[in-house]
């Protein structure tokens, strides 16, 4: 692959995951930057990276940097992605792409004008068995798609004392659980089925209308088992929360299938669990991110099967994003590696303006439009059509 020089922005939970995955994908990482030069230096030293860049702006100003990865809180994505594209660089932005569809629509236009590649890190597509499921839908193995159901549930925000910037609408956006984890499911299912979701009917709920905010800073998933006693409770203040902890969304797909999604960040014992079941007229497929190397294939008139991830047995598209033989499990960090291999491989082949094999800003924008339809549906307690991608309803 051609040599690319990259910098990652954000030193919290997922920024270092990007660094590790880029290195494993064979892409050069020239630094990681945080909110202050001191935090940038500390993260670079921890990860064994050069300490040349202290801030996002310094990385932006260096013409030899080809691509910047944005792993910062949601409220920063729009300005930072805009700045990266205007600096003439490729960009990988974490999800959700922006805080609203005005922002995400502008990013789509800017990305097109710039001639640079622009991806949103919907990494879950890059579990090989999710590509296998997409191939089986494409090849009509399932038959006519009837319905799609599933959930994405976690427990790290279960307690009133659990806190993170995501719970504040000003930092994460008006929708929280749906935007943070629900959009992974919605992106994945639209990728697998090749169909857009056209209408939604949502019922959302804030379990904790007040949370205790620690007076210090909090990193993602840092709650742990003791977060409702001890130092956190001693140094905290009550904050009103308007974003949802959980909710149900009924779905209608183009072409007639329907379905539903349950999203929750308050399900005890579920650490990070995405499930789906696709039901076709001939077969069904079921997958769970907590055992990602197994795909259940359901039949009515013959025994059910369980496909174990194995590049020798999967569709070529799934084998292409699988680096290890069957039985050698691949997981969460591998999805980022495969996404980045795909992104940089595509740029190296000069595919920037054609259809992309990774989630683009256009698809990130679509997720934001879906979020807006879901919020409107919840507020108005009725079905809402998802706006067209030009922003028109
Ligand atoms: N695709 C996936 O699987 C995942 C995606 N995400 C997404 O990634 C993004 C980051 O989430 P996460 O890592 O969990 O969040 P964290 O809070 O753990 O990390 C965010 C980081 O961004 C830094 N930061 C804040 N402001 C700036 C700035 N102006 N310039 C540079 N760095 C800054 C923070 O620094 P400081 O601590 O000093 O404020 C912190 O290091 C979110 O959009 C989230 O939705 C997150 C997890 C998984
Ligand atoms: O995949 C993910 C795992 O959980 C994180 C915290 O809710 C999400 O932000 C992220 O997208």
UniProtKB/TrEMBL annotation:
EC number per UniProt: 1.1.1.292
A Pfam match: GFO_IDH_MocA
Region (Disordered): 210-235
Keyword Oxidoreductase annotated: yes
Keyword Protease: no
Coiled-coil region: none
Highest taxon listed in the record's lineage: Bacteria
Keywords: Oxidoreductase
Domain annotation Gfo/Idh/MocA-like oxidoreductase N-terminal: ranges: 4-122
Extent of Polar residues compositional bias: 212-225
GO molecular function: 1,5-anhydro-D-fructose reductase (1,5-anhydro-D-mannitol-forming) activity
InterPro entries the record matches: Gfo/Idh/MocA-like_OxRdtase_N, Gfo/Idh/MocA_oxidoreduct, GFO_IDH_MocA-like_dom, NAD(P)-bd_dom_sf
GFO/IDH/MocA-like oxidoreductase domain ranges (all copies): 132-285
Protein name: 1,5-anhydro-D-fructose reductase
Native organism taxonomy: Bacteria, Pseudomonadati, Planctomycetota, Planctomycetia, Pirellulales
